[in-house]
Amino acid sequence: MKTSETFSLSRFGEYFILDLRNCFAKVGLTTLVCGLVPLILLVMVAATNFAVGDPSVWIIENSVKDMVTAVTSIFYFLLIPISCYGLLTDKSAGSTSLMLPASHTEKYASMVINSMIILPLTFAALYFATDAALWAIFPQWYDDAVIVDIVKRTFRNSPTAVMTMLSSFFMPWMVSAVGLTGALLFKRGKGAKTFAVSAVSFILLVAVLGSIDIPSLYNKVNMHTVNVIWVVFQTVCAVLCLTYVYFRTKIIQY
Amino acid sequence: MIEINDLGFSYGQNPVLKNISMKLEEGKIYGLLGENGVGKTTLLTLLCGLKKPQKGCIDIDGYNPYDRKPSFLANQYYLSDEVAAVNMKAIDYARNYGKFWEKFDMGKFLEIMKVFENDPEQKMNRMSCGQLKKTWISFALACNTRYIFMDEPTNGLDIPSKAQFRKAVTKYTSEDSTLVISTHQVRDLENIIDPIIILDRQDVLLNATVEEISEKLYFDYSNEKIEGALYSEMTPGGCVQVLINTGSEESKVNIEALFNTVHLHKELVKGMFAK
Amino acid sequence: MDFNSNKSIYLQICDSICEKIMSGELGPDSRIPSVRDYGAEIGVNPNTVMRSYEKLTNDGIIYNKRGIGYFISPDAKDIVLQRSRKEFLEEEVPRIIKKMKLLGLVPSEIFS
Predict the structure, then answer these.
(1) Which residue from B52, B70, B99 is facing A103, i.e. has the nearest CB?
(2) Tens-place pLDDT, residues A39-86
(3) For the whole model, what pTM was predicted?
(4) Structural domains in chain A (count)
(5) CA distances from residue A215 to A208, A219, A228 in whole angstroms, order as listed
(6) Is residue A153 part of a domain?
């Protein structure tokens, strides 16, 4: 039976494993370091406090941890696709990759799965595990483990809690999708440009929203709907980004 | 078989290929000659699917290269002029990537690396430019594909390596493989290329076998000056003059002299070899 | 193989094989490498070697056993000897004579 030109499971498997290995070779260390940020945070805070204040009094509050988690996550999700797949715009490396006998669908699926699912999940698992381990070892210095905090907030007895939870951050899949888009859109300075464009877009969005008269709107529309719209909007952005990436990689020329 | 019909390609406002048509037959080792910037790389990248023809079309065994279908990709190997280094041992690279080409032969890869006196256990990003190039050449030949496109493979090779290259190509190319090797240093490919294609700005000046060339052109190596020579040149060994072959005598085709003759008498040569 | 001569490459290959026949290196009915193998050995395109083998076959110096390979004809040595003699007498001797005249040498100075 002739192998399909669009998708062959065995060929995809081979390609996927190779791609995954290459990704880990490139960003394995970065993933490890980012996953250990809770430890780095603890060390930094502890060092400061031991030098300055009374070690028996300080504590790392949830709000601080939330911010650190958010910043690290955005940094990771945005820049990892660029580190792994930025080379596709380079003539030499990109040609080699394009000429590898696998279908475009297989290569695209592998790229998306690796940069948007596997690597982020690895980072998240490492991060939460490190954080939980530290919370278990040094409960006196922490409020809650991040993951405990998230679970608490999500399953608070409120029907809108999930949406509130989701919309309080950027959607991980949107950030990854934006990262992947930046990897393929820009030729040089991808990281900086992607971050800059994203930041500017977000600021513009906030400015636009800020000009809408919220108080009068608040009576007509409740927060839950707003949250839902925000989540849907981000998902739509992600889908648009991924569509761009699909066609960009399909028609790319070297 | 490769069929190129009325192919056109420009970089912005700058046309590089125009109305290029030719047929490349199976099982041959084609030499694609031409000066720098004439479109050799462009042609090769169009043939392997890295670029899309802006005009005309290319048909390789019924495939359109730009579709980049996996079964088409598995039947070819494109060796770029610019070699990329990989952070892997050569042998590991071969093991991990060779499996995408059905007929890849690991033993052959190691044999060719040996001919090149290259250590497969060495990391590719630690190799010199020449060693890296030789590794890629070994891999390309070991894939045993129906089509192998090589862009300036001898660039960056020292003289002994060029000889090793000629040996590797003649020994390790299978009968049903078609090679297209481009170069602007014609002497590097002496004796191994047949047929010869000479590309000029937006034009195919020549596409003929060595036998056809020696039937139509005579290369004289005596030191007597001959009237009506199309081209003459002083070489260290003496003089070489190129004339229209009126008799049935055959002579050794000097590729450099041929190249220069063709460029001096473009229309004449085109007419002589028109099919 | 040294391709410095100005003769067509395929003819130089023929000459090389004929030399080996003359020297006895290639005896009657001994096998010579296939077109591809020989091309690989000396770094020459198989088309060229094919032409050489075709010429040698036409001249009766080698013969082809389908599916097995090329072999030296039993009377190859005689054929090559005759051809070489003819070539010597028709081409080299006149050249030598011309040169001798140019240098003012007489046969007795060369052949004792």
Answers:
(1) B70
(2) 998 888 888 777 776 655 567 777 788 888 889 999 999 999 999 999
(3) 0.89
(4) 1
(5) 15, 7, 18
(6) yes
